[in-house]
Design brief:
heterodimer, A: alpha+beta, Alpha-Beta Plaits, five-stranded antiparallel sheet, four-stranded antiparallel sheet, 6 helices, 40% strand, elongated, B: 577 residues, alpha/beta, Rossmann fold, 3 domains, six-stranded parallel sheet, 20 strands, 37% helix
Chain lengths: 176, 577
């Protein structure tokens, strides 16, 4: 069980530091592991950054990786979770020719049914935004592809865990 | 030449003074107790060198002949003394030349701080002359690194660098300082670093784990200890000795761990790993409890992992949580500084002896003696063996000398046969296997402990990788004793070619220069021997010399190092021939 490959979301709480991204990604690179997606943002704690890294690997190896990530001086704490243990989503944007919005009735239906949101419309193009699971975004992409997409971009996964991450108390302990 | 600083100004916790970044750097180093720096000047670090010139009564700079030599000297200094070694270089090629030594220090957990100059901050990223992204390049091989672009950062970052390099599991730190930050002035004060909130150097000891470890040790029938450098790094030699003696457990060592207890200790059962002793390798797969103390189950120690000690309950004493279950699953992981965990577990341990079990080690040693050791140490053939050279060094140094070895056959022979009475006696490149390590490392070791005899044992291949450091020896008069065991081959690679590549000796035979003439060219006393009857006198002459001395010993060209666990084989498959 521990040796089967699975999707894991790794959450790393860190100090905000130049070069840390390099240090963390190098740990994956040394073991020849592909990072499926990565997102870096602020976290719930002031001045603490949060890396959200999506990987496909065995639990045995993800544990070793966590140990090696936590070993980095500016890393406060790292966690790993399965899909079932997290609430997660990705965001994406489509840039599409505006004329299609009026000429192709079908597009308006797709937008409505997919829960996508129009961010902006001008004479030349409109921008559509959608947040959700990967398969929902992929489906929307497939449907819109038929009409022509000028630009497409999808974000890395962001996730919160169902259970509490015991990071705040940890930091409080550090500060004392 | 006395390289120790004569005077020392206290820069700790003083009132602030308005000075340049480069002066602040030198004062910071003095405040950290640094008295020797190994380095090489150049454009981007010149302001610092100008300050070093002014402060030369307080801090001594040793000009090595290559930046790699500077790192290995700093490593030798750190390994023998436990203090942080310091290396310095300019930007670009100066900085990249440090990388091998930094990687070596990282894998062998050596406390070292490297300081590099960098192009002015307005030129960063512009492919300026001698610009290289040394922070990016050194990231995977440093415990921590940082680029300073403002002078005011210098004291805090240097304090942090020394704290990180030395604390917990030690390692190398690189600090890159732009030239404008060196020139900039600011109000300097210096405080030691007392902690970093995201960094916990030593994990807390879990008493309940200690209890279950003690239980397993007390219940064991055939337990075995494998100890590593952690015992030395944790300065836990006394605690370890007390633990071994009370528990009565046979104790084997990795090449990084040897000398933590005297070689002659009755419970010492020898070296584990690829060229280790027969008994501890074989019996690793027969013990019921394996106590791994301050070691990390390197693949050269374990052989084929899936056949390594699978029958044993593994108790792993370790300071670095990332090492737990990395290679071998620990049934009982005892996290913490071994100095603490060993002293806390000692009262819980029953006094025991395992005479039948010890007998098994002795029986296997007898087999190894007949098949290997006898021929190495008491050869009957004409050619000299590396083993008999080590035996003679042991005899004449009485186990007091530090042996600094390079990488290859001579290294394995040195580690197998050198006898140590004192800790920190074996200085070698264990994890990285860096040829060229020994000569500069011996310089650092000698300077850190001038009262101790330091003998560098080097092969003819590795010697030529950093041979230019003879210049450093000549200039500083460091009384290093150098023994080159010359077989005109890259011996270890040749051995593999003989055993596994049908004797196709691709690029391993060497046409060597006149090493004695080269040493003499550097005004170092030198001698060559190739006959058994000359050996003892030559070593005596070397050992009694007050100055540096070079001895070339021409040894048998095609000797092999045994025992040997072939790459990828199990420790049980160790070969004696």
């Amino acid at each position: 069980m521990e040796h089967t490959r699975k999707q894991y979301t790794i959450s790393v709480y860190t100090e905000n530091n130049i070069g840390l991204l390099n240090r963390i990604s190098a740990i994956f690179q040394r073991r020849h592991i592909n990072i499926e997606s990565m997102n870096i943002s602020v976290s719930e704690i002031e001045a603490v950054s949060r890396f959200t890294i999506l990987v496909n690997m065995t639990e045995v190896n993800v544990r070793k990786i966590i140990g090696q990530i936590e070993k980095q001086i500016e890393v406060i704490k790292a966690f790993y979770h399965t899909d079932e243990e997290t609430i997660y989503l990705e965001s994406c944007m489509f840039k599409i020719k505006s004329e299609l919005l009026f000429e192709e009735r079908q597009i308006q239906n797709i937008i409505k049914e997919s829960d996508a949101r129009i961010v902006t419309v001008n004479r030349d193009f409109f921008v559509l935004e959608k947040s959700g699971r990967r398969h929902e975004i992929e489906m929307l992409h497939r449907e819109l592809s038929a009409f022509g997409i000028m630009q497409f971009v999808r974000s890395g996964r962001i996730a919160v865990t169902k259970d509490e991450m015991k990071i705040t108390e940890m930091l409080a302990a550090f500060n004392n | 030449m006395d390289v120790k600083a004569k005077t020392k100004t206290n820069y700790l916790n003083q009132e602030s003074e308005h000075i340049t970044g480069c002066e602040a750097l030198v004062r910071s180093l003095i405040a950290e107790g640094v008295d020797i720096i190994y380095g090489y000047p150049g454009g981007a670090i010149m302001p610092v060198y100008d300050e070093l010139f002014k402060y030369q009564d307080q801090i001594h700079h040793v000009l090595t002949r290559h930046e790699q030599g500077a790192t290995h000297s700093a490593q030798g200094f750190a390994r023998i003394s436990g203090r942080v070694g310091v290396a310095m270089a300019t930007s670009g090629p100066g900085a990249t030349n440090l990388i091998t030594g930094i990687a070596d220090a990282q894998i062998d957990s050596t406390p070292m701080v490297c300081i590099t100059g960098q192009v002015p901050s307005h030129l960063l990223g512009s492919d300026a002359f001698q610009e290289t992204d040394i922070v990016g390049i050194s990231t995977p091989v440093t415990k921590w690194n940082h680029q300073i672009t403002r002078a005011e950062e210098i004291p805090e970052v240097i304090a942090k660098a020394f704290y990180i390099a030395k604390s917990g599991r030690p390692g190398p730190v690189l600090i890159d300082i732009t030239k404008d930050a060196q020139f900039e002035t600011f109000d300097f004060t210096y405080k030691k670093c007392e902690g970093v909130r995201s960094y916990k150097p030593v994990p807390k000891v879990d008493t309940s784990i200690l209890k279950s470890a003690a239980q397993a040790i007390n219940d064991a029938k055939n337990p075995m200890i494998v100890w590593g450098q952690g015992v030395i790094l944790g300065e836990a030699e006394q605690e370890f000795k007390a633990f071994v003696e009370k528990s009565g457990i046979p104790a084997a060592w990795t090449i990084m761990g040897v000398s933590a207890i005297p070689t002659s200790h009755p419970l010492n059962v020898g070296m584990v790993g690829m060229h280790g002793n027969y008994a501890p390798n074989k019996l690793t797969n027969e013990c019921d409890v394996l106590l791994a103390i301050g070691m990390r189950f390197d693949d050269r120690v374990t052989g084929k992992l899936s056949d390594y000690a699978t029958q044993a309950k593994v108790i792993h004493f370790e300071i670095d949580p990332a090492e737990i279950d990395k290679n071998v699953i620990a049934d009982i992981p005892v996290l913490g500084d071994v100095k603490d965990t060993l002293s806390e577990i000692l009262p819980m341990i029953k006094e025991k002896s395992y005479s039948d079990w010890h007998q098994q080690f002795k029986d296997l040693l007898k087999i190894e003696f007949e098949k290997v050791i006898k021929n190495d140490l008491h050869p009957t053939k004409d050619g000299l063996t590396m083993g008999e050279v080590l035996k003679e060094i042991n005899l004449q140094s009485r186990g007091e000398a530090a042996i600094v070895s390079d990488v290859g056959q001579h290294q394995m022979i040195a580690c197998r046969y050198a006898e140590f009475n004192k800790s920190r006696g074996n200085i070698t490149s264990g994890g990285l296997g860096t040829m060229g390590f020994a000569l500069p490392a011996a310089i650092g070791a000698k300077m850190a402990t001038p009262e101790r005899e330091v003998v560098a044992v080097i092969g003819d291949g590795g010697y030529q990788m950093t041979i230019q450091e003879l210049g450093t020896i000549f200039q500083t008069k460091a009384a290093v004793k150098i023994v080159v065991l010359n077989n005109d081959f890259l011996g270890m690679v040749r051995q593999w070619q003989q055993l596994f590549f049908d004797k196709r000796y691709a690029s391993t035979e060497m046409s060597n220069p006149d090493f004695v003439a080269i040493a003499k060219g550097y005004h170092i006393e030198a001698k060559r021997v190739s006959k058994r009857e000359e050996l003892a006198t030559a070593i005596q002459e070397m050992m009694t010399s007050k100055e540096a001395y070079f001895l070339e010993v021409c040894v048998e060209k095609e000797d092999n190092v045994f025992p040997m666990i072939p790459s990828g084989a199990s420790v049980s498959e160790i070969r004696l021939e």
